[in-house]
Design a protein that fits this description.
The protein is mainly β. It contains 2 helices and 17 strands. A hairpin with a 2-residue loop joins strand 11 and strand 12. It is globular. The N and C termini lie far apart (about 55 Å). About 40% of the residues are buried.
């Protein structure tokens, strides 16, 4: 009996040591971003609105991120993020629990390979560093043709290389999941960035196929090229970015609404950030959108102030003004109009948002 007990104890010790070698960690984190806002020319296009906002700079979410050391420099990773609306506790995307990330994969010195629901490289690299984020706050990706500047896609496999001398590259492919056709509904996104010292540069290309097309026609295509850069000088950061959208015709896309005809458009954003104090940073942005097919344009001017009460909690003030010309129907906050862009032709909007943002 003593021999059996000793063998059992040794087995348990060996099992425990094996568990200890395969180190793993799970982190719970999230963001709560909310406040209240005032917007002109909503509803019928002539009314103003005061109310609570579910997000100012980004969608509130809670997430679980994990990593397990598999040995030999290889690790398993996962990331699950559930978006929610703080004003009522509802899911930010109806029927989607993990609407902000749902992925699992492997990481090593050769890069990372992940599968699931994932953000494109525009959002990974350019939003925040070049293009200011925000919802109903004057972000470039809220324009009808440019939502893919920040988009998350279903059924994807994504590779990100390690950094070499400041350079990093990546590729993502999304399966359309259509029987009998690989092209229908497929998505692919490639990108390269350079980040060294005060300089950041990035360029990406998105290609998205119509998800309802017949196998014979393969449907319409959305092509988006995005590039931008930033340069920091002490407390000052200068930003400049541009995007070109080419939609060949009507179709069902993951990123943008269906358009009745083919459209081509470009958008440019110039911005500056300045840290007035360690706690307070102010930003100013100007965005110009031009639809060359319809010959209409939209301008957005935006001021943003962030005051940090601590490392995790900040106060936010955002003021944006949108101006439509030549029949454009874009909006900061959607009206009762059914037009693409959510606004009325040649309508102007002013939106003020004041809120609090807490990360954990």
């Amino acid at each position: 009996m003593n021999t059996f007990r000793k063998l059992g104890a040794a087995t348990l010790l060996l099992g425990a040591s094996g568990v200890a070698c395969a180190q793993s960690s799970v982190t719970i984190s999230g963001v709560i971003d909310t406040g209240f806002g005032y917007t002109t020319n909503v509803g019928t296009g002539t009314q103003s609105k005061v109310g609570m906002l579910n997000s100012i700079l980004g969608v509130s979410n809670v997430g679980f991120r994990g990593k397990e050391d598999l040995g030999g420099g290889l690790a398993a990773v996962f990331n699950l993020q559930a978006g929610f609306n703080p004003t009522n506790g509802a899911q930010s995307a109806s029927g989607q629990l993990f609407s902000r990330n749902s992925l699992v994969g492997l990481e090593s010195a050769s890069g990372s390979l992940t599968v699931g629901k994932q953000w494109n490289f525009n959002d990974d690299w350019l939003v925040g560093s070049v293009f200011k984020g925000g919802y109903n706050s004057g972000a470039i990706f809220k324009f009808s043709e440019f939502d893919a500047v920040s988009e998350i896609y279903n059924n994807t496999i994504k590779y990100v290389s390690p950094e070499f001398g400041g350079f990093q590259a990546g590729a993502m492919y999304g399966f359309g999941e259509a029987a009998g056709s690989l092209r229908t509904g497929q998505v692919y996104n490639i990108g390269v960035k350079y980040s060294q010292g005060p300089l950041f540069l990035g360029i990406t290309y998105d290609h998205e196929q119509d998800g309802t097309a017949s196998v014979a026609s393969n449907g319409s295509v959305l092509k988006l090229t995005t590039l931008g850069g930033s340069y920091s000088i002490n407390a000052l950061k200068l930003r400049l970015g541009a995007a070109y959208s080419d939609v060949s015709g009507p179709g069902v896309f993951q990123s943008i609404p269906s358009l009745p005809t083919s459209r081509k458009a470009y958008a440019v954003e110039a911005g500056v950030d300045y840290a007035f104090t360690p706690a307070f940073t102010g930003s100013a942005d100007a965005i110009y959108r031009k639809n060359t097919t319809l010959s209409n344009d939209t301008k957005v001017y935006r001021l943003l102030g962030i005051y940090s009460l601590s490392k995790r909690t900040s106060l936010i003030a955002n003021l944006a003004y949108l101006s439509n010309g030549d029949g454009a129907t874009e909006s900061l906050i959607s009206t009762n109009s059914t037009a693409i862009g959510g606004g009325y032709a040649n309508q102007h909007q002013t939106a003020l948002a004041l809120g609090i943002r807490h990360t954990f």
